[in-house]
Amino acid sequence: QCDWSSDVCSSDLKLSPKGEVQTIRLIQTSGIKNWDLSAARAIEKSSPLPLPEEGGPPEEIEVLLQPKDDG
Predict the structure, then answer these.
(1) Label partner for 44 (CA 20 to 30 A): which of 2, 26, 50, 66?
(2) In which element (H, E) is residue 34 found?
(3) Which residues are CB-contacts of 7 (< 8 A; sequence separation ≥ 6)?
(4) Is the pLDDT higher at 63 or at 4?
């Protein structure tokens, strides 16, 4: 049984000026390889990220992903 509350993975993203994800670097693993891989795929599919109304996106951001516990 998984303790979803602790299955967080953290990734550092480098973005292009258009908000496209250029690189994903895993900072903290959840300990579950498939969850970490699924999180990276979700980030890739989100590219390009929405741009702020003023200015461009930050060059680098950190993303924390955690499964939702519906129980």
Answers:
(1) 2
(2) helix 33-45
(3) 30, 31, 32, 35, 66, 67
(4) 63
